[in-house]
Write a structure and sequence with these properties.
There is one protein chain. The strands form four sheets. This protein has a six-stranded antiparallel β-sheet, with helices on one face. The chain is built from one helix and 14 strands. The chain has a single domain, classed as Jelly Rolls. It is globular and about 40 Å long. A hairpin with a 4-residue loop joins β9 and β10. Helix content is 6%, strand content 53%. It has 160 residues and is mainly β.
Length: 160
């Protein structure tokens, strides 16, 4: 499995790796261990969709089901780091550094999201991988691989 880890100005930027290697990343943030232990001990594919709190608003995840699409919006966050884990199915996720984008929709503080314009590299995500998106990382989730497919995915939100 390929690990993509860049360090710039002392900040970690976008990571993709195998869930089998998750333990290697627990030192990057005080709450990553909580997330990866939860994933190790729980089968998220059988859990109901919706919000699940691990520690209130500091660490939680949204479990979603959807059909992948050929186009999606490019997004970024300011308050939270995302750890995205596909439980069932597979999808492509677009990625670029936020410096390579322009604002399409201004930041919404209540939803912790802004939408952007920019070119992305695409990464395949399935039930064996995880992706970490820091606030510096613009990402475009839920993209189809060749055709629309049903996906169930957890998006863990970790306060930065």
């Amino acid at each position: 499995m390929c690990v993509k880890l860049k360090v710039r100005y002392g900040v970690f930027i976008m990571i993709i790796d195998s869930l089998a290697n998750a333990e290697k990343y627990v030192s990057l943030h005080k709450d990553f261990k909580l997330v990866f232990e939860f994933l190790k001990e729980n089968d998220i594919s059988t859990m109901p969709c919706g919000r699940h709190e691990l520690r209130g608003d500091e660490v939680f995840f949204n479990l979603q089901e959807y059909e992948t699409k050929s186009e999606q919006k490019l997004e970024a966050h300011k308050k939270y780091i995302d750890i995205q884990v596909v439980a069932v199915g597979e999808e492509l996720m677009g990625y670029t550094n936020i410096e390579n984008t322009t604002v399409a929709e201004e930041y919404d503080e209540d939803r912790d999201v802004m939408f952007l314009n920019g070119e992305v590299s695409k990464l395949k995500a399935d039930n064996k991988t995880f992706l970490i998106f820091y606030p510096e990382d613009a990402h475009m989730p839920a993209l189809s691989i060749n055709e629309q497919k049903w996906v169930k995915k957890a998006i863990f939100k970790i306060q930065k």
